[in-house]
Each structure stands twice: as C-alpha cells, then as structure tokens.
Amino acid sequence: MEQILAFVLGASAVVFVWTVVVAFRTASKVKYLEQCLEQVERSSRENDRDIHHRIDQEIDRTDKSIGDLYSVIDSRFDKFEAKITKEKQVIKG
C-alpha cells in the first residue's frame, strides 16, 4: 500500500512539474505573439498613414495641374476673343 501511495505521489509530482513548465512556455509564447501582433498593427497603421499622405499629395498635384490647365485655356481663350474682337472692328471700320 505504501508503495502504491509513493508511486501515485511521485507521478503526481511529475505531472504537476510538467504542467507548470508547459504553462510557463505557453505564457512566454503568448507574450511573444502579442508583441509580434503589436508590431504588425503599428506597421499597418504607418503604411496606412503613408498611403493616405501619398494620395493627398497626388490629389493636390492633380488640383494644381488642373488649375494650370484652366489658366492656360483661359489665357488662350482671352487671346482668341481679342483676335475676334479686333477682326470685327476691322470689318466694321
């Protein structure tokens, strides 16, 4: 009877130590994975911010280009209008 009790207590002690070791390994792996997840989230936010910044720059550049285009068209139209007006005066006069 004493031998059975000693065997059960010994086996229980081994299982307990093994459980504690597994629990600490699992906790360290979870901590490592949380750090990796935070790093991935941070990187994702930075990439998202950079993409939005680049899109805003492209929109600003496009708006400036369109503004330049309107300016060129407006000046050409004014020259054309002046030319037509001058020709009407020549025809009338």
For the largest beta-sheet, the strand count, sense and barrel status come to: none
Question: What is the SS-derived class?
Answer: mainly alpha
* Total tally of structural domains: 1
What is the rounded distance between the termini?
135 Å
Structural write-up:
- With 93 residues, the protein is mainly alpha-helical.
- It has one domain (1-93).
- It has one helix at residues 2-92.
- It is rod-shaped and about 135 Å long.
- The relative contact order is 0.04.
How is the topology of this model organized?
Blueprint: H1 2-92
Label this structure with key terms:
93 residues, mainly alpha, 98% helix, 0% strand
Brief digest:
The chain has 93 residues and is mainly alpha-helical. It has one helix spanning 2-92. The protein has one domain (1-93).
